[in-house]
Each structure stands twice: as C-alpha cells, then as structure tokens.
Amino acid sequence: MNERITIFIDKADIIVRGGRGGRGIISFDRKKFLPFGGPDGGDGGNGGKVILRATNRLFDLSSFVHNPLYAAENGYGGQGGKKAGRAGENLIIEVPIGTIVIDKFRNEQIIELLNDRQEIVLARGGKGGRGNVHFKSSTNRAPRYAEWGEIGESRELTLDFTMVIDIAFIGSPNSGKSLLLNVLTGSKAEVAQYPYTTTIPVLGVLKTDPPLTICEIPSLRDSEGNLRFWKQTKRAKVLVLVVDLSVSNLDREIETFFSENIKDKQLLIVGNKKDLLLKTIRRLSKKKGIPMMQVSAVSGEGLKELEEILLKLATKKIIVERKEKEEVTLFSTQAPIVRKISDGVFEIKSYEVELALSSINLDTPKGIQILRKKIKELGLETLLIKAGIEPYQQVKIGETWFTYLPEK
Questions:
Q1: Mean pLDDT, to the nearest integer, of 332-336?
Q2: Contacts by residues 58-61 (CB-CB < 8 Å, ≥ 24 positions apart)
Q3: Could you write out the DSSP letters of every residue in 193-256?
Q4: Beta bridge partners of 271
Q5: I need a labelling partner for 134 at 20 to 30 A (CA). Which of 89, 258, 280, 296 fits?
Q6: How far apart are CA 160 and CA 48, in angstroms?
Q7: 3 has pLDDT over 50
Q8: How far apart are CA 273 and CA 275, in angstroms?
Q9: How far lies 61's CA from each of 12, 34, 175, 354, in Å?
Q10: Can you say how many angstroms the Cα of residue 84 is from the centroid of all Cα atoms in its chain?
Q11: How far apart are CA 121 and CA 331, in angstroms?
C-alpha cells in the first residue's frame, strides 16, 4: 500500500538576483550619401526586479524546496539608430500571507507580509549600459566605446512563515480537534482512532459574518519536547484548547498548553465528548480564569453556541497591523574586503565596487583605461598592495577579472 506523505514547510532559504542591464551598442549612421555619419548606438534596457508578493492562495513555503534561486530577466542590448533595448521582465515570487523576510547576511528582519497582494522589491535590476552616442565629444567624433549593463542586486534571504488566522484549535492527540474542525467548517481533516492522525496544520473557514479562519494545530513535539507547530498560533486571535474529557490528566494538559506565551489572546476551553464527566474541567477553568464550554462533535450538540462564542471572541479585539516600507535599501555601504583565494589570484568583495565596475566595457582600450582610473579612485590598488599582490597577478571583482599592472 502506498503511503501518502504530506510535508508542511514553514521556513526556506532563497537567493534573489535582479536582472543585469543590457549592453549599450557601438554603431554609426551608415546612410547613403552620408559618409561622415556620427555615432548612433542605443542604450541597453534596464534589468528586471525581483518582487515578493503575498497571496491568500498559498498556505506554506513548500514551493521553495526545490528552487532556491530566483533571478529576474536581463535587459536587452541597444540597437543602431539610437534605439534602446527592451527592459527585462520583473520576476514576481508569491508567498503566503504571514511570511517574514530575513536578511541572512545581516541576520535582521526586513518585512512581514500581512496583507493579500502586499509587495516588496527585494532586488533591483541593473541600469542598461550607454551606447556610443553618449561618448561623442569635440575631440572624439567617432567613439568606439559603449558600456556594458550594470549587474543587478543580489541577496540571500530566509523566508519564515507564520499563519495569519482567526482561531487555532490546540490540544493533545485524539482530543477530537479534527472532527470538530470538520463539523464546523466542512474541511477534510483526517479523522481516525489512533493518535497523531493530523501531521500538518489544517485550515477551515467558519461561515459566519464575517467568515473566520480556523486552523487545527497538530500536537507534534520535537526532540526536546517543544511544540513543533506552536509558532503557527502566534497571530491567531483566539486559542481554543480542545480536551478529551475521558482522560485523567486534564490538569497537566491545560498547564502544558497555556504555559506558553499567550499574551493578547482570547482563550477558550472546549470539552469534547459532552456525555463524559465535566467536574475536573470546570474546576480548572475557574482556576485559570478561562471560559469553557462543552460540545459533542458527534451529535452536534452545543456547536451552534460554540460558533457564536468563537465569533464574539474573534471580533472582540482589533489587531492593528503596522505599516511596512514597500521597498528597502538592500545594501549598506561597506568597506571592500581583499583576500587571496589561490596562488597569484586575489578577490575584492564589495557590492558597491562590483556595481561601479560592472558597466565598464573591458573589450576596448578605453574600458581598460576607465578600469585603471576607477581602481585608483576607489583606493583598491592600495588595498591590493597591502594584501601582498605582485605585478601580473590576477584580480577578481564580482564578474570582472583583470591583470594587476602597477603604474610606472
């Protein structure tokens, strides 16, 4: 018999890259009867952006498991006749509502996406390179130089998902959470007589006015005894502890679940299987100051009253969501780092430096001159000398390679 295994993914590491700008072109007007036509090389198009968008159509991060790299389209090269290249298409990545975006390099949170279709630009595309029409001057009427496009921004991120729900059903295995969820919402949570039937959070919608989302949280513990899916209750407005009244350790069960951080939550204890003894749960409810009620998911008794109480609790407190910046500065200015990566090969790590050099056309003598000037202006030659570089050794800066030749 084939066993179906369902995995709930609430964390994923990804890399995002904006598209590189298209290359500018070297071109000259060659019309008939115009022997001295000037430069007319067009600019390259800008690279596309990587945009993260929240959607209510996704419920976990499983779509990121097999595809960690997301790159927008590069810009297209320019053409003759001063025609600019087309810009690269933006890449839109969809994530479930409730996703937190964390910068792995700085280990800091960038944004929480809490609303449907909320967007943030994570990686901007590089600017397109200028065509040779921009380099015409009184001393150079036929410039044979055009820029390459700039590199797009690149970033390593962690996506951390926590559900945005109204009500969370928590409780021990076999307490009747799945059956209660199915009866209330018509969901398809698996129901069986053995414990740990539900292995991932299951969603349902209670058709009240307004509708309420309910999530059954599995009672799975990690190797250290911590509740594995407890963080998925973080944004729930109401926590409902569903208890099986036939068990003998209700006191310890209630202490276990409500010993977690439950600030700013509406709380309710629901005793499932109404025909069983309620003396213990009433005493514990009074002790904790938490309202309780009894229902029978099998007979349907008490379910109407439960719907009314859930609606009242879920709408009692309005959660004010803070406004997030729609776009963030992805890179702060940082000093370049020089390191020796092998014999005769040095690398300079700095996004600002990579960006400054990425548009230089190294296939031309003018490009080599510009590169040498930039290296001196940015103080890179001094850093290379301090790192022990020798003449004719290789230097790597992002995608740019060159041979170090000190000025005489």
A1: 67
A2: 58/94, 58/95, 58/96, 59/96, 59/163, 59/201, 59/203, 60/8, 60/9, 60/10, 60/96, 60/161, 60/200, 61/9, 61/10, 61/11, 61/12, 61/95, 61/96, 61/99, 61/159, 61/161
A3: SSS----S-EEEEE-SSS-EEEEEPP--B-TTS-BTTGGGGTT-SEEEEEEETT-S-HHHHHHH
A4: 243, 294
A5: 89
A6: 25
A7: no
A8: 6
A9: 7, 61, 28, 32
A10: 33
A11: 13
CB 335 within 8 A of CB 386: no
Contact yes or no for 176/294 (Cβ under 8 A): no
Q: Closest by alpha carbon to 233, among 219, 209, 215, 206?
A: 215
303-314 and 177-185 are packed helices; what angle lies between their axes, rounded to 10 degrees?
Answer: 90
Distance, in Å, from the CA atom of 133 to the CA atom of 281, rounded to the nearest integer, reads 82
SS3 13: strand
**Cross-strand pairs, 204:** 214
145 in Cβ contact with 357 (< 8 Å):
no
- Tokens 């969603």 locate to 203
Mean pLDDT of all residues in 240-259:
70
The three-class DSSP label of residue 285 is helix
Predicted confidence at residue 242, as pLDDT, reads: 87
* pLDDT of the residue at 327: 46
Of 137, 146, 138, 128, the C-alpha closest to 41 is: 146
Residue 230, C-beta contacts closer than 8 angstroms, at least 6 positions apart: 217, 260
User: Among positive and negative, which fits the CA dihedral 296, 199, 104, 98?
Assistant: negative
**37, two tokens:** 């036509």
**Per-residue tokens: 54:** 């929240």
Counting other chains too, the contacts that 259-267 makes at CB distance below 8 Å and 24 or more residues apart are: 260/227, 260/230, 264/317, 265/236, 265/237, 265/238, 265/239, 266/237, 266/238, 266/239, 266/313, 266/314, 266/316, 266/317, 267/238, 267/239, 267/241, 267/291
Q: Which tokens hold the place of 275?
A: 């025909």
Count H helices and E strands in the chain, helices first.
7, 18
Check: pTM over 0.85? Answer yes or no: no
Q: Over 128-192, what HEC string results? A: CCCCHHHHCCCCCCCCCCCCCCCCCCEEEEEEEECCCCCEEEECCCCCCHHHHHHHHHCCCCCCC
